[in-house]
């Protein structure tokens, strides 16, 4: 039993170490291999192997770094290579779908917004998959290596299973959006409620950056609140969310 599980355990350690090194390069880059070894608390030989694999995968790139006051030869530093990998961001809202291709720095490569009528008799899942296919066909010359699809939308969502239980304005019941797009594209699909995603973004990069407890209230077509408590998103991964929405065509009260 131990012998059978050992290779998988070793692979997991390698993936964990690679993730640590990648995040350190993201945070401190450009950074030398020596400093990277110290920061990651990994042997120089391990750093060399991990970095070589990342260079071959076009995840990082080498650049010269010159220490202030130094007259010697510039050292070789490492920084992320963000333009060689892309992800697709999708925003579903009332009557339209927005699709944006971004690199790993979140720089927008190309974006389309397409009508997605609420009263179309064709199932919503089929229409979403069709629009994703058409987006890739239109922009195939700009597409590099696709890593993932990230989707935000209003509704009652199982973010772990990728299932949309209910949505305002659309006739949806337990729509397996994550599974359908994952099978279609072969990449991971991440789905989050739009207000929760907004709250997370504010906590990471925006007005509430660094705050441990946050409540963000949004009043739009729907009314909802994203909640961060003790640095973690409330209801993350579940279908629960502090939200209410009106029926299509009815005024918000």
From TrEMBL:
Which Gene Ontology terms describe the biological processes this protein takes part in? DNA-templated transcription; regulation of DNA-templated transcription
GO MF entries: DNA binding
Keyword field? Carbohydrate metabolism, DNA-binding, Transcription, Transcription regulation
Q: Which family does it belong to?
A: Belongs to the ROK (NagC/XylR) family.
User: What is the recorded name of this protein?
Assistant: Making large colonies protein
**The species this protein was found in:** Cedecea neteri
